[in-house]
């Protein structure tokens, strides 16, 4: 019986080592190769919905959409190692004070989820998200994390990629977005299938993001040199 348990343990350990190695190789590959598809894109296509996607280098997207996304989703993007413990602490404190528990996922976590995993709330998926977040923070520079994020995030029903979003919503390339337009796009990132860039209910959020763009711009110099205008 003990021998059988040892055999099972060895087999399980060997399997975990192989899976870990494959995941590391996968993340290393995506440092240079763009993700061909993500689970949300696949779900849209399987459901027969149109998918419009763009995929551009970070410097071709222009700095404003980068400022806006960071201001809206992860103001401390350049200051944390993938997990924003300060934001997590604030979310927990607000929950203890009676507020609804809000998400505190960083851009790195969202990139890990969108590029490598599926949507869901299971503990398995969350555990894998932590693992892949660690891997991309170790194996990719911050510029690559942001580039992949901007190109695979959903910016409207079936609209993937910041440039596709800019052309769909405003009829311009991402690099030609104004501050207000970039802020409007980033404002819908938490719920892109339901929120509209011109929704009156998001006016305060758009203004907050626009103000935040100026703040994050000041801390991006060493982390994201391209974003200095």
UniProtKB/TrEMBL annotation:
Pathway: Cell wall biogenesis; peptidoglycan biosynthesis. It is an enzyme of class 2 (transferase). It catalyses: [GlcNAc-(1->4)-Mur2Ac(oyl-L-Ala-gamma-D-Glu-L-Lys-D-Ala-D-Ala)](n)-di-trans,octa-cis-undecaprenyl diphosphate + beta-D-GlcNAc-(1->4)-Mur2Ac(oyl-L-Ala-gamma-D-Glu-L-Lys-D-Ala-D-Ala)-di-trans,octa-cis-undecaprenyl diphosphate = [GlcNAc-(1->4)-Mur2Ac(oyl-L-Ala-gamma-D-Glu-L-Lys-D-Ala-D-Ala)](n+1)-di-trans,octa-cis-undecaprenyl diphosphate + di-trans,octa-cis-undecaprenyl diphosphate + H(+). Signal peptide: none annotated. GO terms for biological process: cell wall organization; peptidoglycan biosynthetic process; regulation of cell shape. InterPro entries: Glyco_trans_51, Lysozyme-like_dom_sf, PBP_transglycosylase, Pep_trsgly. One of its GO terms (cellular component) is plasma membrane. It is a single-pass membrane protein. Keywords: Cell inner membrane, Cell membrane, Cell shape, Cell wall biogenesis/degradation, Glycosyltransferase, Membrane, Peptidoglycan synthesis, Transferase, Transmembrane, Transmembrane helix. Pfam families: Transgly. Peptidoglycan polymerase that catalyzes glycan chain elongation from lipid-linked precursors. This is Biosynthetic peptidoglycan transglycosylase. It comes from Futiania mangrovi. The lineage of its organism: Bacteria, Pseudomonadati, Pseudomonadota, Alphaproteobacteria, Futianiales. The gene is mtgA.
């Amino acid at each position: 019986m003990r021998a059988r348990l040892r055999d099972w343990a060895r087999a399980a350990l060997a399997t975990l080592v192989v899976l870990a190695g494959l995941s590391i190789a996968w993340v290393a590959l995506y440092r240079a190769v763009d993700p061909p598809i993500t689970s949300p894109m696949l779900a849209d296509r399987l459901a027969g919905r149109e998918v419009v996607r763009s995929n551009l280098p970070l410097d071709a997207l222009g700095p404003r959409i980068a400022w806006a996304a960071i201001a809206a989703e992860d103001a401390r993007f350049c200051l944390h190692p993938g997990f924003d413990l300060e934001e997590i602490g604030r979310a927990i404190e607000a929950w203890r004070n009676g507020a609804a528990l809000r998400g505190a996922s960083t851009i790195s976590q969202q990139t890990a989820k969108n590029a490598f995993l599926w949507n869901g709330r299971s503990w398995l998926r969350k555990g894998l998200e932590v693992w892949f977040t660690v891997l991309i923070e170790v194996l990719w520079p911050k510029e690559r994390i942001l580039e992949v994020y901007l190109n695979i995030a959903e910016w409207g029903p079936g609209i993937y990629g910041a440039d596709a979003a800019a052309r769909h919503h405003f009829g311009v390339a991402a690099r030609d977005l104004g501050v207000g337009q970039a802020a409007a796009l980033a404002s819908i990132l938490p719920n892109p299938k339901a929120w509209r860039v011109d929704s009156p209910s998001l006016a305060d959020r758009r203004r907050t993001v626009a103000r935040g763009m100026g703040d994050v711009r000041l801390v991006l110099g060493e982390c994201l040199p391209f974003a200095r205008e």
